[in-house]
Amino acid sequence: MSETGTEGGEPAGATAPSRRALLGWGGAGLALGAVAAGGAVAAVRSGGDTEPASDSGAAVPFHGAHQAGIATAVQDRLHFAAFDVTTKDRAELMALLREWTRAAERMTAGRAVGEGAYGGAAEAPPDDTGEALGLRPSRLTLTIGFGPSLFAEDRFGLEDRRPEALVDLPKFPGDNLDAARSGGDLCVQACADDPQVAVHAIRNLARIGMGRTAVRWSQLGFGKTSSTTPGTQTPRNMMGFKDGTRNIAGTDEAALTKHVWAGAADGTDWMAGGSYLVARRIRMHIETWDRAPLQEQEDIFGRDKGEGAPVGKAKERDEPFLKAMLPTAHVRLAHPDSNDGATILRRGYSFTDGTDGLGRLDAGLFFLAYQRDVRRGFIPVQRRLAASDALNEYIQHVGSAVFAVPPGVRDADDWWGRALFA
Amino acid sequence: MRALRPSVVTAVAAVAALTAVTGCAEKSDGKGDGAVQVVAKDDSCEVSSKKIPAGHVELAVQNKGSKVTEVYVLFPDDRIVTERENIGPGTKAKITAEIKAGTYEIACKPGMKGKGIRQTVEVTGGTAAARSPEMDKAVAGYRTYVQAQADETLPKVKVFTDAVAAGDVEAAKKAYAASRIGWERTEPVAESFGDIDPKVDVREDGLEDGQEWTGWHRLEKALWQDGKLGAEEKALAPTLYKDLQDWQKRVGRADISPTSMANGAKELLDEVATGKVTGEEERYSHTDLVDFKANVEGAERSYELLKPIAAKNDAALTASLDKQFAALDALLDRYRADRTSYDFTSYDKVGKADRKELSDAVNALAEPLSKLAAAVTK
C-alpha cells in the first residue's frame, strides 16, 4: 500500500473521540489500518503491486534478509501455532530449530518433509503426513517467533539476550484473556493460499517437535483482513467492513525500514532484520453487531460500509479527515495521527471456530501485527483503542501473545535463531 | 480397549504371522511367474498347487463364478494371514504376502459370506527370513512376559468376580482396577484374538447393534454409576472369569515377532492417547491412570527386550526412547504416593493443565516409539 502515511492533512490532534473509529480492530483492521497510514508517510504506492494475486500457487522464497510472511503479499489462509518448549536442554532446542528450518525450506518449496510421505520403509510411519501431496506451494510462508518466556532465567541461558523491545504486554481495559490461548515460547505463522497447505505445515512441524515442544494453542484463519498490496481489493472483516485499507505496503522499503524491521542500532544485534509480532484473538459479538443500525456501524468505524470511504469522503483510499469522525471512531483512534505516528503492519485473519455453546458464532479477528518496537507500535495504539473505541461494545480480546521474530534464514546452512544462540 | 478395531486386530495378527507382511492385493492380469493360481467359482475354490515355497507368495485369483467373492489365506485357527475382498465376477486380482512355513487354508467366499470353500496348503522350505538369535531371545522373553501377565492376573480377576458375584460392591470396587493391570499391559496381544476383547473390555459406546454388553466396563458402570449389582451383573462375573481363562490358555500361542512387539508397544501408547488421557476408558471408576501405567509398562517391556537390536541400528532412537520412557514414568509417579503401589489419583481429580502435560508426555514418547519397528527390522 501505498499510503502509509498520514496524509491528508488532518491534524494529528484530532483525537478526540467520537464514535466512530471503530473498526480498528474490530475492525482492527481498519483502525489500525488507519494507523498504519498515518505515521509514516510517504509511501509509495505502488501501484503495481498486484502481483500477489497473480500466481497463488507459486513458491515464495524462504531464504532472505527478512523472514517471509511479513512483507509478503498476504495469502488467503492462516494456521498459526504457539508452542511450549518442553525440553530443558539448550542443545535439543537448537537441534529442533535446525530441523524445523530444513523442513520449512522443503515445505515452502512445495516439497514433502524428510523422506516423503510414501515409498519408505513399510514398517515405519512416513516422515511426511501426506495431505499436501499434489498441491502446489500455494505461496506458503513459515515465520517463526520467540516469546518472552523463552528468555526466562534458568531455562536456556538466554536471559541476557532478551530484546528490550520484547516487552510483556500490559493489561488493557476490557481484556478477558484465556491463558490457554495466550503466550507461548515459540510461534510459527503459516500462511498460504490453500488452507490444507498451511495446516500441513504446522502439523508436520508440531510432529517433528514432539518431545521437545508441545502445541500450546493454535488458530486457523480463513479470510485475510488486511492487505500489503495496495493495488488489490481490500478485504472485509467479519463485521462487513473493509479493513486494512491503509496498511504498510510490502514493497514500501522506506516504511518497512522505519516501522517494521528492527535495526542493528535498536540495541539487539541478533534481531537486526527481524520484527516484533503481536497476536491477539479478538472475539466479535457478531449477533449484537448484526442488530446495530447501519448508521451506528458506520459511525463506529468511521467509514461507510459500501465503499469503505472515510467519513465525508467519496473513495476508500481518500485520506481520512479525522475530525469529521466521532471521537470514539475506530479509524480515528487507531490512526497514526492519533498516536504520535505509531504505525504497524497488519496481517490479521478472520476466524470462525464454530459456535460457542450458546448458539452464537465464535468468530472474530485473529489480529497479527508486525512492528519495529511494540512499545512504539501496538501498545500506544491499543491503549487508546481500549480506552475509547466505540467498537469495544462489540468485541473482546480473549487471547494475546507477543514474539520476537528473528531475521531471515540466509541460506541452506543458516537456521532459525542461529544468531540468538551464537 | 474397544470392541472394534479391525485394523489393529488384523494388523497384529498379520504382522505376527508373517515375517513381513505386505498383505496387499492389487489388480493384475493374474498370470505369472510362480504365482499360485486360484480359480474361484460359486461352488469351488481351485488352487494350482498345494505345496507352496515359503517366502514371498503370490496368489493370482480369477473369479469365474457369478458372485462377488473374497479370498483369504488363513492360519489353522482361522486368523487371517492376508485377504482380498470384493473380487467381482469375471475379474482377476493378485494377493501377495510373506508367508512362513506351515499349514494354511485358502478360502474362497462366494457372495462374501460364511466360512467359504477351503483348500489346505502346505507352505514349506526355509525361505522364511532367518531370525537372529537375539530376535528369538526377544520374542521368547516377550512370550514369557505375556503368559506371566495372564497367569498373575487370573487370581486378581477371581477376587473381583467373586466379590461381584457375592454382591459386595465395596470389595468389588477395590478389586476392579487391579484385575485389569495384566490385561492392559499386554492388550495388543490379547486383542489379536479378535473374539476375547469384545467380550471382556468393550465400553458401552463400542457395542455393535445387537451385541450384549459384558465384561469389565459393564460391571464398572454398575459399581460406580448405579452403586449396586443386580442379578444380571452378578451372573456376568463368572462369564468374565471364564473368558479371561480362555485368554490365559491361548495367549502363549499368539504369534509374536519383533515387528509385532514393536508395533504393539506403539499401540499401547495409542491406547493411552485415545482412551486414557481423555478419561474415556474408565469413565465411571476414574481409574484411568492405573490402565495408563499398565499400558506404559507393557510398552516398556517390549522395548527393553528389543532394545539390544534397535540400539545397533539406531542408537539415537533408543537414547530418545530411554529418555522419554523415564520422563513419562516420572510424571506418572507424581500421581501416586507410593511407587510400588497402583493406587493412583482418581482421574476426575486431574485438571485440564495436568491432562495436557500427560498428553504431551505421551506424544513425546509415542512419536519415537512409532519408529521402533523399522529400527528392529532394518
From TrEMBL, chain A:
Query: Which reaction does this chain catalyze?
Result: heme b + 2 H(+) = protoporphyrin IX + Fe(2+)
- Dyp-type peroxidase C-terminal domain residues: 234-409
* Keywords associated with the record: Heme, Iron, Lyase, Metal-binding, Oxidoreductase, Peroxidase, Signal
Q: Name one GO biological process term.
A: iron import into cell
> Where located?
Cell envelope
Q: Spell out the GO cellular component terms annotated for this protein, sorted alphabetically and separated by semicolons.
A: cell envelope; cytosol
InterPro entries referenced in this protein's UniProt entry, alphabetically: Dimeric_a/b-barrel, Dyp_perox_C, Dyp_perox_N, Dyp_peroxidase, EfeB/EfeN, TAT_signal
Cofactor (UniProt): heme b
| Ranges where the Dyp-type peroxidase N-terminal domain occurs | 67-222
Record's keyword annotation contains Methyltransferase: no
Q: Which GO molecular function, any one, fits this protein according to its record?
A: heme binding
UniProt-listed NCBIfam families: Dyp_perox_fam (TIGR01413), tat_substr_1 (TIGR01412)
Q: What does the protein in this record do?
A: Involved in the recovery of exogenous heme iron. Extracts iron from heme while preserving the protoporphyrin ring intact.
Similarity section: Belongs to the DyP-type peroxidase family.
Stated name of the protein = Deferrochelatase
Q: Which organism is it from?
A: Streptomyces pratensis (strain ATCC 33331 / IAF-45CD)
